[in-house]
Amino acid sequence: MKKWNRSVKVALAVATTAGLVIGVLSPATAATRSTVVIIDSNAFTSLNPSHNEHNLVLNSNVAYMSGIGFNYYDDKPVLVENKTFGSYKIVSKSPFKVKYTVNKGRIWSDGTPITGVDLLLTHVVSSDQYSIDAGLGDPASEDKEPAFDSGGYSGTYNTLIKNITLAPDRMSVVIEWKKFFPDWEVFAPGVSPVHALVAMAEGKTKLGTNANNVANKNKFLRAFLSKDTDMLRKIGKVWSNSYNVTEVNEKTNPLLLVVNGAMQVESIVKNQRVTLKLNPNYNSGPETSGIEKIVYVTIPDSTAAAQALANKEADYYSALATADSVALLNKIKGITLDGTPEATYEHVEIRSGSAPGGKEYTGPFAGMSQKAKDLRTAALLAWPRQEIIDKIVKPVNSKAVVMNSLQYFPTEPNYGKMIAANELDKFTDGTQAQRTAKALALVKKYYPDAKAGSNSVKIEVLYNTSARRASQAALAKAELSEAGFQVNLNPKSNWGALLTDSTYDVAFYAWGKSALLQTGNFSSYKSADSDSGYLNAKVDEIIGELELGNYNDDQRYSRYLAIEKLMAEDAVSLPIFLWPTLTAVNSDLKNVRPGPLVPNGLWNFWEWTY
Amino acid sequence: MFAFIMRRLGTLGVILFGSSFLLFNLAALSGDPVGELRASNEPDAEARIAAITRSLRLDLPPPVRYFIWLRGILGVFVGKFDLGQTRTSEPVAVAVFDAIPTTLRLVTTAAITAIVLGIAIGIITALRQYSRFDYSMTFFSFLLFSLPIFWVAVLLKQFMAIEFNNWLAEPTIPPTAMITIGLILGLIVAAAIGGDRKKYWRVFFITAAGTVVTLVLMLQLNWFLQPSLGPLGFFAASVGAALLITQLSVGLQHKPSLRAALCMSVLGLVSYYPVNWLFNKENQPLVIFGLLLLTIASAIAASIFFAKIDRGPVVRTAVLTGILTGLLMILDKLMRTWEPYFNTDAVNGRPVPTVGQTNSLLESDDYWISLLDVAMHLVLPTIALTAISFAGYIRFSRGTMLEVLNQDYIRTARAKGLNERTVIMRHAFRNTMIPMTTIIVVDFASILGGAIITERVFGWTGMGTLFNTAINSFDLNLLMGVFFLTASLALVANLVADLLYSVMDPRIRVGAGA
Amino acid sequence: MIFGRKRVESADSEQGSIINKETEGLSQGQIVRKKFLQHKAAMIAIFVLSSIVIFVFSALKQKIGPWTYPGWWRYGIEDLSDLTTGCKDGLVGCPTASLRPQWLGGAGIGLGEHPFGQDDIGRDYFALVMRGAQRSLMVTVIIGSIGGVIGTVVGAIAGFYRGKVDSILMRFTDFIITVPAIIIGSVIGFHFGNLGVAFLAFYLGLFAWTGLSRLVRGEFLTLREREFVDAARVAGATNRRIIFKHILPNAVGIIIVSVTLLMSGAILLETALSYLGFGVLPPDVSLGLLISQYQESFTTRPWLFWYPGIFIVTIALCINFIGDGLRDAFDPRQRRQITRKDRRDARVLKKASAHA
Hints:
A: seven-stranded mixed beta sheet; 34% helix; globular; disordered N terminus
């Protein structure tokens, strides 16, 4: 009996201890979470998203987290200067020169100091002229890639920037522009670990000593200044090839992983995930607040992604949502939804002429005659934008409104002022039934027997094959037929190439923007670039001013307003809605504030915390 | 025969040339790699179009590009085999060979389960033709066969992962549900075993009651959170396996086999603790392999001890029992790994994943935890793939078995007084397997091509995903790389199937008259 | 246990006498017909499938040449109507069909305005499902017939003539096997856009016959060695006559069965292609497109997911059962199900003969 009692006691003691241990352990494990798992639909392909063929969202996001330079976009969106890293200012108006200075004491993850030399590579991978002069190949050539297979060539940088020079203290560079460029701030030089590039070009596979690194930096500088073709070609080979890794493990060359951002790639499992850990030597940007690990997992299927989130396999998922994914995610406990739209908007374009080089357009909307203008106005009046918002966008983002300015998004401060003045309000006045009646009246002017369903004006509408577009097309077709139009739907998977095709009278698709430029959303309406054949000399002239003028906000605004008024009068284009992107985040994760510009929700990852 | 094979291999080359040419040109016509960019209003769109045109050689017509690709392939004769690079500048050969293990891991378990289950059920339904069991299995298999896999996947994820994980937070089963499960299982088992009405109901009640009792016990013992067989459960299962294998291979009345098989079970019980001690050592794959060798050796020793003459069947029975017992032991170990796995940070009490190949956060050095993780990630895709593919095997093996059972030699076998077990296992089953084998070979080749949709919905990157990516991103080199492998495999498999058929069925000659 | 010997044997002898009695004095065609008509599952499947076909094709308005058939359903697939409100969870467009009578607190038994609910923009989902089912059935029939004809012809010629012809045709078959259906789908989708489902099905049919041709070839290879073919040849029959009069009737079982399998496979092929974005494109509708479009609706607006799914499964299921019935009917050695009535009749007969 006594023995039995003792064993009971022992058992009780063991059970209590076990219970305590479990009790202590389990809440502790829950509280120390410091990892964020992010779902992405693509697989990782390269550590170098500037490479011509690796300009993928996931690559760019990983690069954003592991590298930081002079500025970044926040959620307003405003270009924020990263004062921790350095500063920049205009040093001369004519010739136009900007000086970029790196603060002292900034270091790479391997401890090497960051200097102005690290900014020079930008010029090598963006200036066609430098590439040609240094014997690295002509980036515009049709059959041979340049030594640096960069996606940055032949762009604005190449056209407008004359050269880059290193200041004597080697902590600053001065960029000289050929003429004033309003959006110069966006073209801040990026920062690259040139010492690591040189080390790899020399075949090193281990991190160098500090002295080595400084020596390598000088080697790069010499090669850059003397346009040493051999050396630069070797570096180009590393830049174009070595960074394209789909796997990172203990065998990976650590030189590839030298970064200055808050996070550093720890491991990559091919086609499955990218794991980033805190960079211990990070001092180039805002301080991080508690997240120690960020893992990207690749899930291509959107339903699978939503279900993974529901099963708590991930913390962060951002995608163009459908009504159902919103409802599905809404049901999940512990998930917060954010409907901040991306800077991508749906718009309808009406052809008024032939695209540059296209065959002649003779459809009902051709030209700038009153008849063509009236018919275009009628089509835009009858385009059921409110219904599209109500049925297609609102289930995803209940705050969505019809976008009524070509330049400003409804989320921007100038939007209210603009829509009050831009005369696009004729396309929102009254109910849709009244607008459609007006449209029918306009059609009747030229086709007296027009009535609902009379099919008086035959038009071809082009769009891509997605379900969302098909729904919009169905709504538009039904409403336009009330105004006497016969709408022929052309869903095409090769719609991109057909935008210049004069066969199609109307096209609707989306435009996105990745930076805030002074030309705003108008550069595609220049007659030289317009796919829909828009030609208005005044509009051309104002766009020309915007491309090069140095304006303040008010001056810019008045020019945007002028273009919008002209285009409202010509009735060639109408915005519809901002794309309803949905970001679903584990509710425990704080400070996630998605912005409209890339990298959207990730811009302030350093502020994230549980 | 040799000449036949050489001739077939020769034509195989010609076919590959023709179909690759066709495919390359079709695929080149199927999309515009720069289509999206044409619609863009970004300032650098034109430069990017030019760069893509350059890197993909879009300035050349597709047939010319085909021959550029072919030159790389033909390099095999000068030792420079080159499948080109993907659009993300990875060598195609690397991409393809990295995808093969993933695909294999995904499809092998499912294929084996489907084949074993399908053939077993097919044969039982043939033996019980037009019984209730036959009808319900026919209906069931057609039903599964008719389901789109992504539909199945969505349902599986919802009910077997998300809801099950929620349920695990507080595992209780209401009595009504328990009784329903019992009744359903009872019906299935009773129908499968068959017999007269009395036996049918007896089996039904025993199974139903047994299920309910088991469920109650499982809940009481918190089995869903801390599952294990324990030495006794393990021994019982092992004895069951011994009896089943003996019955199927030689019949229970064959005493030496029965003794050898039971001996293996006893050996398993005796070594239960030592083996589990070994399981906690390092370098597990080696340990397991060593144990496998040991099992086989002891099985042979046992059969030599128990059988004096005609040892073949005895060895077979003992080895199979031994291996099955070993698997049971591994299963037991995995079950006991469940709890620590369940409580890791990465799993956090949600053990059934919906997506991926492994847990992206799990960092465990424990072999068993990683193994369980891999196994858990295989659960749903395997169920989905098995469900849609085993119907075919059921139908086919049922049909073949019925045909065989109607043959004269079966009648002869029965007439000479062989017992039913021998007639079915030795005569009918073997002849059923002849056509089945060729079907399995061809099927295996085609599944290596990847389960495009399954991989997509479960987030795996195997051959199917590569293929899909290649088409969607107009990556011709990648597409041709995948094609080259899968098409060659399919052609070779067809050849092998033809040869196997003629080897197994002497009535058929290959290349007859050709 | 699994091997119940006694039962099998007794059933065997009993069955033998029943079947023999039944088939006495009937031609093969009559036997097949009789056996098929007695196959319960196949009969139910035929009934269900033909009901579905009639139901689905009569529902919507469509143009047949110069005539317009009005259709008995009030909506077409392009008709937009206001979304039903007052659903659970603040959703819109839920089904109005109800089976719960008013006195039980339901909306009463009836279809309501939109029995299957509505899609996002207010189109009637019943109409969409009907159109989708029409498309899916069309795909099934087109792929089945084109694939069936090519497969049979190729297989028959290869199997009958053997030798060079056989190797050439079989290598051609191998060639077709290597071309993936998804490529065909994507090429057609890209170039011809919405030329229509029929067009897509036609091209898929051109590549879907390989399995069938191998089977038919095998059957012809065996049959041409049989005594009755030799007899016909000796009697001076032409090849043509031998193929059409002697071999084909004997191979028709396997052909029909394979074609039904091909057809039920086709409906799933269309679904898979639509899921991957290479099949039917909006604004056209197919069942596969509907369920892949609305797979996310599963937990939120389940009607969008279930209704097309149920139609796919039912159609495929019916085709499979019909094929199963045909298979059993064409197999001369196949025993059919012995009903209780048969057993009774047989016993009576036995007794009667014993008395006699």
